[in-house]
């Protein structure tokens, strides 16, 4: 097979001769059909058989087994315009594969050796089937039985089939560390706690409500995904007074995730951790816009003395990260990511890298937002971005649906505890899944509208899969951003089709349950994606009665669905105004991750 590139340069220029005229080295086709296919052989030996016949020994020009043909001396055959070096054509046979135990990672090369211009086609085994390309899923997959038949029939059909077992690789010392998820926390329109979130998703409930209060009376849209309890009532009064609403959500979600990971109430010191080896990474767009609006109102009503000294520290988007740091005594770092609606996902991605490369061992990562305020609602309404539907007939947020007409504003927080795998195993932690990778890109298209081509989204998707050390064939689920805007959903759907190819991957979108939680969306949706992998169940997409035909995806609707077994990666998508694209890749257990006690 090593001669294929050299032999492919041999000119053919066929012309007829009699069988008696052929000599060793001739490149011969026995019929016009063989010329057209093409199907050629090198003559390696000739021997008179009788006065009327000649025995010709033939071998495929790219290597293979010999075959003898007895031809009439006057029979016309077709030869190429030059002879070949017989000693340069290998004699070989395809080994039978009937008793070989295939493993994922094995490769099989198939070369049509009778075609001088053929190129070896390689298939890789992944998830029990064979693929031409692990990242371009447009070709049908091949079964183990097909590969065994190829090998069994290869010599007869003029092919060479070679099996290359998967190489055994040892982990490189000093490389990036594997990052795992050990804790989850959430405060959402479905309630306080991860249990409320997950059960609400499975039940197909939504938390979108009519807004009450005279400040909302004149708004053209008065529905939003609001947290159904006052978070200040769940925190000590003195502490709550020093936090804006988004920070209150963040602290509650962080406390839940911290405890879920098996750490002690109180924080790092009580848990026996070095505070300098723990970090916080939270996403937010504004955090809590109401504090600044309230300060301005008091300034106009009561003058400068009426403005609280806490107005400025409670206004900055970094307040959530700093309050989580204060609450759990985390000194390693407290990072805030602001990249529009991709903020929460990007914050998780940055935390993955901080752990991978040894900056910290543990991180609380996600997003928090509280921007259900009259001014923000009015602004979104002026953009014609909000749904005009009410809540009387179910969720007004309808991702991927034919009748979608805009997103629903929302609030909440979602936090993951990320940890270096060896750190989690050393303390016997329960591991949900691997935080395997992430990808970023920018549309560079418009300050608010998505690029309709979806090319930027597709780039982020591919980068996330690659960063996870995986391939597109490994993707088994997508938690879509899908805000229920007409253009946004189509751009994301087009990007997913471009990346996934012919693979049918179950897709779900949670904004029908929750509304769009802005900078917190990536955190909450990552929590849901983790639970989808952990429980093996895909929640349905609420609000989507009829999927838009132009979407072209396997959108899960109606009832939860069992997660397929032919992959291990779940992708969680977040895209924001200005063209910010962020994708998180999570890998379920069973792909080489040790599982602790839990």
Would you kindly provide a written description of the structure presented here, covering whatever features stand out?
Helix content is 27%, strand content 24%. The chain has 598 residues and is α+β, with helices and mostly antiparallel strands. The strands form 5 sheets. Strands 11, 12, 15, 16, 17, 18, 19, 20, 21, 23, 25 and 26 form a 12-stranded mixed β-sheet that branches. The chain has a 6-stranded antiparallel β-sheet with strand order 1-6-2-3-4-5. Strands 9-8-7-10 form a 4-stranded antiparallel β-sheet, covered by helices on one side. A hairpin with a 7-residue loop joins strand 4 (53-59) and strand 5. Helix 10 crosses helix 16.
Q: Count of helical segments?
A: 16
Average pLDDT figure: 93
Q: Based on Cα principal axes, name the global outline.
A: elongated
Please identify the structural class as seen in this structure.
alpha+beta
Query: How many DSSP-defined strands?
Result: 26
Helix content: 25-40%
Poorly predicted tracts of residues:
1-6, 592-598
Q: What keyword list fits this structure?
A:
elongated; six-stranded antiparallel β-sheet; disordered N terminus; disordered C terminus; 598 residues; alpha+beta; twelve-stranded mixed β-sheet; 27% helix; single chain
How would you summarize this macromolecular structure in one to three sentences?
The protein is of the alpha+beta class. It is built from 16 helices and 26 strands. The longest helix is centred in the middle third of the chain and has 16 residues, at 245-260.
Topology:
Layout: H1 4-7, E1 15-18, E2 27-29, H2 32-36, E3 41-48, E4 53-59, E5 67-72, E6 76-79, E7 107-112, E8 121-126, E9 129-131, H3 144-157, E10 159-164, E11 179-188, E12 191-192, H4 194-203, E13 208-210, E14 223-225, H5 237-241, H6 245-260, E15 278-283, H7 289-302, H8 311-315, H9 319-328, E16 333-337, H10 343-356, E17 362-370, H11 374-382, E18 411-420, H12 421-426, E19 433-442, H13 455-467, E20 475-480, H14 486-500, E21 506-509, H15 511-514, H16 521-535, E22 537-538, E23 554-555, E24 561-562, E25 569-576, E26 580-588
Parallel strand pairs: 15-16, 15-17, 20-21, 20-25, 21-23
Antiparallel strand pairs: 1-6, 2-3, 2-6, 3-4, 4-5, 7-8, 7-10, 8-9, 11-12, 11-18, 11-19, 13-14, 17-18, 19-26, 22-24, 25-26
């Amino acid at each position: 097979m090593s001669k294929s590139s050299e032999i492919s340069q041999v000119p053919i220029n066929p012309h007829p001769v009699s069988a008696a005229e052929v000599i060793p080295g001739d490149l011969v086709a026995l019929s016009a059909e063989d010329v057209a296919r093409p199907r050629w052989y090198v003559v390696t030996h000739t021997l008179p058989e009788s006065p009327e016949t000649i025995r010709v020994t033939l071998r495929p020009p790219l290597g293979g087994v010999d075959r003898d043909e007895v031809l009439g001396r006057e029979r016309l055959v077709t030869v190429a315009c030059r002879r070949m070096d017989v000693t340069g054509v290998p004699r070989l046979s395809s080994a039978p594969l009937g008793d070989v135990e295939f493993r994922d990672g094995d490769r099989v090369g198939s070369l049509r050796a009778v075609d001088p211009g053929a190129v070896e086609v390689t298939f890789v085994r992944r998830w029990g089937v064979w693929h031409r390309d692990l990242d371009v899923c447009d070709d049908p997959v091949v079964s183990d039985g097909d590969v065994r038949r190829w090998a069994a029939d290869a010599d007869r059909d003029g092919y060479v089939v070679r099996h290359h077992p998967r190489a055994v690789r040892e982990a490189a010392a000093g490389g990036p560390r594997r990052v795992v998820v050990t804790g989850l926390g959430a405060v959402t329109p479905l309630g306080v706690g991860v249990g409320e979130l997950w059960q609400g998703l499975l039940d197909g409930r939504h938390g979108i409500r009519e807004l009450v209060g005279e400040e909302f009376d004149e708004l053209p849209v008065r529905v939003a995904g609001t947290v159904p309890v006052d978070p200040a009532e769940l925190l000590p009064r003195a502490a709550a007074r020093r936090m804006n609403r988004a920070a209150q959500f963040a602290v509650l979600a962080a406390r839940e995730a911290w405890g879920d990971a098996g750490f002690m109430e109180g924080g790092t010191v009580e848990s026996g951790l070095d505070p300098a080896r723990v970090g916080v990474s939270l996403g937010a767009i504004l955090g809590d816009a109401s504090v600044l609006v309230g300060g301005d109102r008091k300034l106009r009503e009561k003058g400068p003395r009426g403005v609280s000294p806490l107005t400025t520290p409670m206004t900055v988007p970094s307040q959530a990260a700093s309050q989580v740091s204060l609450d759990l005594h985390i000194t390693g770092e407290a990072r805030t990511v602001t990249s529009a609606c991709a903020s929460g996902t990007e914050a998780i991605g940055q935390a993955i890298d901080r752990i991978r490369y040894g900056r910290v061992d543990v991180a609380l990562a996600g997003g928090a937002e509280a921007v259900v305020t009259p001014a923000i609602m009015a602004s979104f309404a002026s953009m014609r971005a909000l749904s005009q539907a009410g809540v009387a007939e179910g969720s007004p947020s309808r991702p991927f649906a034919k009748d979608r007409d805009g997103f629903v504003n929302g609030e909440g927080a979602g936090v993951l505890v990320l940890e270096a795998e060896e750190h989690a195993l050393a303390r016997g932690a329960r591991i949900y899944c691997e935080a395997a990778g992430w990808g970023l890109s920018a549309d560079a298209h418009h300050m608010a509208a998505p690029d309709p081509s979806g090319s930027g989204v597709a780039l982020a998707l591919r980068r996330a899969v690659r960063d996870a050390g995986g391939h597109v064939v490994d993707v088994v689920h997508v938690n879509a951003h899908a805000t229920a805007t007409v253009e946004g959903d189509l751009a994301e759907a087009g990007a997913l089709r471009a990346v996934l190819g012919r693979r049918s991957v179950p897709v779900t979108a949670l904004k029908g349950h929750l509304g769009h939680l802005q900078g917190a969306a990536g955190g909450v949706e990552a929590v849901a994606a983790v639970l989808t992998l952990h429980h093996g169940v895909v929640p349905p997409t609420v609000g989507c009665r009829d999927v838009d035909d132009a979407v072209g995806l396997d959108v899960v609707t109606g009832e939860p669905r069992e997660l397929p077994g032919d992959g291990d990666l779940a992708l969680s998508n977040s895209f924001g105004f200005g063209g910010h694209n962020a994708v998180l890749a999570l890998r379920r257990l069973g792909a080489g991750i040790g599982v602790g006690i839990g």
